[in-house]
Amino acid sequence: MKITREQVEHVARLARLELSEAELDTFTGQMDSILSYVEKLNALDTEGIVPTSHAVPMENAFRADEATGSIGVEAALANAPLRAQSFFRVPKVIE
Amino acid sequence: MEIFDLTIHELHEKLKAKEVSSVEATRAMLDRIEAVDSQVNAYITVTPEQALVQAEDADRRIAAGEIAPLTGIPVGLKDIFVTKGIRTTCGSRILENFVPPYDGTAVAKLKEQGAVIVGKLNQDEFAMGSSNESSYFGPCKNPWDLSCTPGGSSGGSAAAIAARTATATLGTDTGGSIRQPASHCGCVGLKPTYGRVSRYGVIAYASSLDQVGPLTRDVTDSALLLGAVAGYDPMDSTSVNTPVPDYVASLAKGVKGIKIGLPKQYFIEGLDPDVKRAMDEAIAMYKSLGADIREVSLPNTEYAVATYYIIATAEASANLARYDGVRFGHRAEDARGLAQMYSKSRAEGFGPEVKRRIMLGTYALSSGYYDAYYVKAQKVRTLIQQDFLNAFKEVDVLLTPIAPTPAFKIAEKLEDPLQMYLSDIFTIPVNLAGTCGISVPAGFSAAGLPIGLQLVGKPFGEQEILTAAYSFERETQWHLKKAPL
């Protein structure tokens, strides 16, 4: 086994996903078979190979430090599930 | 020939000659959607009111003599493109009621030309899938055979071309999501080089792989639509600042003397016999047109799918962290405390394929596994990219199948995600290498399903693959056959 049910539960907590018992079982089996398949990469010797994070070689992209327009408070809040005045409202963070 | 059957360039000529107005063309398209889309489910949202206002505006421009190639043309957009004031779902419950406050760059460019947006197209949820079955808004069907999938993730964008419910569409391609559905639906689909088209306003899946591209009825339209959306954009720091050529002007150059490579790892046992036959006929056609055909090697091909499913899921797990129920999107009603609000909102908002990929990506990035999976995959990506650069020292263009089989049946691969992932084996390497590829209709299976041919170009070699595709299309005319709908 590449991955256990306990590890899958741990990953779900890291990913902030509440999974049902049935989902945990399904994902354990599926992730195990996918990770077993991915093992084939270990057949390749990649010692000294530079990792590619980006397809096109590029430097940092900077722009001039000048203020530009923004969409405004009302537009920014228009999709909020819950708002209070000009804020996003969320449940209490510290009990 | 009905108005909804026309290509962009044919409709453009009629608009210019005032044989038809944009309002008439748009009404014809909206009527066609009304008549057939209940069978296909290519559209998540149809926007008749906005479309008719845009069409009236286009007609005013045309009357004033200000006609651009896309002025007055009814187009559809994959629902991954954010559109100001028009609901944008990305095929997900979590964005079911999301109405973006701005237009992305590709959309803004289409609007500047006066294109008419008739609606937002079905797709796999967050572009994760190869069959359009992971959409929260139900599967899209293949117009050539309604029991088959149209491919994915841009399934609606391809199906709308085949069903003739849009003159042209935009999709996105992260591992084949434009080319594979184009192949399965018998249309032309182009994935440009990474950085060629701005990703600003395109909902992110895997940022180092995602790219915007056109799905069209023919190669000329592909060149036109690519030219309309390509170019540097200060809002996307990964867009590349190289000039956009006139892609249409070079189409008729022909293929005499160009070197076409056949990667031997792509012509293997297990290729569907109908696909194999279509490839053999295409190779013979290119030979007869004077192309120089040779075998090349892409030795790391067999590692591409494994590499992709680490890199794409890792990037996805980071990108999709933004769906937390705070600023936009679905929020669970009955959560206790902030942490549970996150995890419940995400659990309710995401479907199984998205959860699976977030889980895989989170695992690959988690402490203790980062080097073994993520860094390893990035190193193999270097080798795969190197394979392509080496091949392009010998040849101008690569010719390959798009998919090992024609369109598969709905539900056929749902229970086995790995089998679904493996169906993208011929398209994924192009995204990892960051270069460009096009799918062109190349025949039909015995069962009457379309088969696509892939031409892969050098980075920023869109002109070469469009020219090669155009030569093939002109000789074969597969693109003229219509789905029985």
Describe the structure.
Chain B: The active site is at 78 (charge relay system), 153 (charge relay system), 177 (acyl-ester intermediate). The complex is a heterodimer of chains A (95) and B (485). With 95 residues, chain A is mainly α. Chain A contains three helices and two strands, in the order αααββ. In chain A, strands 1-2 form a two-stranded antiparallel sheet. In chain A, a hairpin with a 2-residue loop joins strand 1 (83-84) and strand 2 (87-88). The longest helix of chain A has 18 residues, at 21-38. The two termini of chain A are 40 Å apart. Chain B is an alpha/beta fold. Chain B has a domain at 3-249: Amidase signature (AS) enzymes (Alpha-Beta Complex), CATH 3.90.1300.10. In chain B, 39% of the residues lie in helices and 13% in strands. In chain B, strands 1-3-2-4-6-5-10-11-9-7-8 form an eleven-stranded mixed β-sheet, sandwiched between helices. Chain B is globular, with a radius of gyration of 21 Å. The relative contact order of chain B is 0.14. The interface between A and B is large, with 52 and 73 residues.
Would you summarize the structure shown here?
The complex is a heterodimer of chains A (95) and B (485). Chain A is mainly alpha-helical. Chain A is built from 3 helices and 2 strands; from the N terminus they run H-H-H-E-E.
Largest sheet data of chain A: 2 strands, antiparallel
Give me the number of helical elements of chain A. Answer: 3
Number of DSSP strands of chain B?
Answer: 11
Q: Helix/strand/pairing class of chain B, anyone? A: alpha/beta
Number of strands of chain A: 2
Major sheet: arrangement of strands of chain B: 1-3-2-4-6-5-10-11-9-7-8
In oligomeric terms, what are we looking at? Answer: heterodimer
CATH architecture of the domain at 5-42 in chain A: Orthogonal Bundle
Strand fraction of chain A equals: under 5%
Termini distance of chain A? 40 Å
Name of the top-level CATH class of the domain at 3-249 in chain B: Alpha Beta
CATH superfamily of the domain at 5-42 in chain A: Glu-tRNAGln amidotransferase C subunit, N-terminal domain
GO biological process, one term (chain B): translation
Active site (chain B): 78 (charge relay system), 153 (charge relay system), 177 (acyl-ester intermediate)
Catalytic activity (chain B): L-glutamyl-tRNA(Gln) + L-glutamine + ATP + H2O = L-glutaminyl-tRNA(Gln) + L-glutamate + ADP + phosphate + H(+)
Organism (chain B): Citrifermentans bemidjiense (strain ATCC BAA-1014 / DSM 16622 / JCM 12645 / Bem) (Geobacter bemidjiensis)
